[in-house]
Structure formats: structure tokens, C-alpha cells
Backbone:
């Protein structure tokens, strides 16, 4: 079933990506202070949002797996982790590449940057922990506990720019009050955010489709899929 | 805006394009790799099932 949904999400991702990049590069004007360099924002900010969003998905589905022993929730948590780690890495690297021309340094041990780096370590710790435990149920349980404890870092990342005086600028997009960002820059930013969400959904479903075969390899339906797909592959090569 | 002006990014070409480049490579690879890993899992499982069938026939 998820196999049929993947192309829809993937097309949605591609379309919002192209439109978002078009608006980001050709419609939005250069920033009056930062010139063209601010266009890094259209990948940096949505990636940073995704890094926190995916962590919450991971922790919540890990918690659901822990309490109700739902295997699909455990599966969702473990296949989300590498994607979340990738977005965290992108947020850090693009932030660094943006920081160099604007702040004059690739890195500072500032509250926002440090807490985001801790988020990357939480993802990597989760992945390493699950990989080191052979029994899938124990691996899921241990990973879920780590993910839930790590949730404490999420509000720290979010409020770091308010709680501490940092080099990182404050939020410019607040949904409740009026955002302090111009509409021509807000449109591509939100399009890219939607695009990354759709990327995550299609990517996580593709990963889950592979991983579930491995986890359920002793069940009859997996054997049927394997038989059917090998037959199709053999037919295709002839 | 000319093509070379666009790629020049007002002097920030290195920072802007390496940001987009790294994101594209990483997200692209993360998107394609599950397709291959699923194929590999199917291949592994097919071999495993064949072996099981053979063992059952020998009994």
C-alpha cells in the first residue's frame, strides 16, 4: 500500500522544490544587508526545522512503540533517524557556510549551534545504539528511551536564541504574530519547508518498505512479495 | 540578470553553491539508497528461502 503512496509524495516534493527554488533564486530580491548570501536560508532554515520535527516524530513513535508495543511505530522511529541526522548535518553545514561570510567564522560555541550539534549526536547515538543491539525488540526499547530523554534538547534549541545572548539571530517566522520577514522571502521559505516535509514522508516510506521485509522475513506475506518481485525481475531481464 | 551574474551570487558563490551542493548530494543519496537496499534485501531473502526449501527437501 505504501508503495502506491510514495510516487505522490515524491512528485509533491519535486514540484514544491522546483517552485520553491525558482522563487528563492529568481523572485526573492537580494537582502539589503546580506546581499545574495542569505539565499542559503532557503535550505538552512527548512533543514533545521526538519531536524527538530523528525526528532519529535522519532521520539513520539518510539514512545508509542514502548507503551503499546506497536511494531510499526518502532519501525518508523528507526527509519526516521538517518533522515533526521542528514537534515541536522545539512542545517549545521549550511549554517557554517552562511556564518563564515556573515559572522566571519565557520563555527562558534554559541547556544543555538551547540544544541543543534548535540541533536546530531543524539541521532547518531540512537542509530549506533540500535545497530549494536541484535534483538530488534530490545533495540527499539533502548532507542526509544534515548530518544525520549533527548527530547529535552528540542525546547533548548528552539529557545536558545531567546534564553542566551547568541550570535545566531532570533526567529523571524512566528506563525502567531506578524513575521518580520518579507513576503517575497517567506513564500520560497515555506515552499521549501513543505518540500522537505514531503521529501521526508516519501523517503521514510521507502526506507520502511525495505526494512519491514528484513524484520518480518519469517512471515508468509514477505515470502510472497520476494517471490513475486524476483519473478518480475527475472522476466524483465529476458 | 546574466547567467554569470547568477552563478557569481554577488561574490558569495562559494558559500551559496556549496550549501546547495552538499544538501543536494546528501538528500539525493539518502533518497536513492533505500531503492537499492530494498533490492538487496529481496535478493538476500530469496537466497535464504531457496536454501530453506532445499533443506526441507533433503529431510
Residues:
Amino acid at each position: 500500500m505504501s508503495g502506491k503512496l510514495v510516487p505522490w509524495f515524491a512528485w509533491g516534493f519535486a514540484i514544491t522544490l522546483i517552485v520553491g527554488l525558482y522563487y528563492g533564486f529568481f523572485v526573492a530580491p537580494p537582502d539589503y544587508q546580506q546581499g545574495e548570501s542569505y539565499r542559503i536560508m532557503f535550505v538552512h532554515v527548512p533543514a533545521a526545522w526538519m531536524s527538530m520535527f523528525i526528532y519529535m516524530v522519532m521520539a513520539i513513535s518510539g514512545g508509542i512503540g514502548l507503551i503499546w508495543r506497536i511494531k510499526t511505530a518502532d519501525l518508523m522511529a528507526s527509519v526516521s533517524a538517518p533522515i533526521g541526522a542528514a537534515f541536522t548535518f545539512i542545517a549545521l553545514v549550511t549554517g557554517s557556510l552562511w556564518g563564515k561570510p556573515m559572522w566571519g567564522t565557520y563555527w562558534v560555541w554559541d547556544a543555538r549551534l551547540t544544541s543543534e550539534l548535540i541533536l546530531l549526536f543524539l541521532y547518531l547515538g540512537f542509530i549506533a545504539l540500535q545497530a549494536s543491539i541484535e534483538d530488534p525488540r530490545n533495540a527499539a526499547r533502548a532507542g526509544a528511551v534515548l530518544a525520549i530523554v533527548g527530547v529535552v534538547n528540542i525546547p533548548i534549541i528552539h529557545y536558545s536564541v531567546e534564553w542566551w545572548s547568541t550570535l545566531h539571530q532570533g526567529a523571524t517566522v512566528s506563525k502567531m504574530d506578524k513575521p518580520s520577514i518579507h513576503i517575497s522571502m517567506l513564500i520560497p521559505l515555506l515552499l521549501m519547508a513543505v518540500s522537505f516535509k514531503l521529501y521526508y514522508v516519501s523517503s521514510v516510506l521507502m526506507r520502511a518498505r525495505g526494512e519491514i521485509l528484513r524484520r518480518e522475513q519469517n512471515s508468509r506475506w514477505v515470502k510472497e512479495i520476494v517471490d513475486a518481485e524476483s519473478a518480475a525481475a527475472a522476466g524483465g531481464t529476458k | 540578470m546574466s547567467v554569470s551574474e547568477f552563478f557569481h551570487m554577488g561574490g558569495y558563490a562559494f558559500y551559496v553553491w556549496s550549501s546547495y551542493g552538499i544538501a543536494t548530494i546528501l538528500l539525493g543519496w539518502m533518497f536513492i539508497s533505500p531503492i537499492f537496499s530494498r533490492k538487496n534485501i529481496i535478493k538476500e531473502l530469496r537466497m535464504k528461502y531457496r536454501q530453506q526449501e532445499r533443506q526441507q527437501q533433503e529431510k
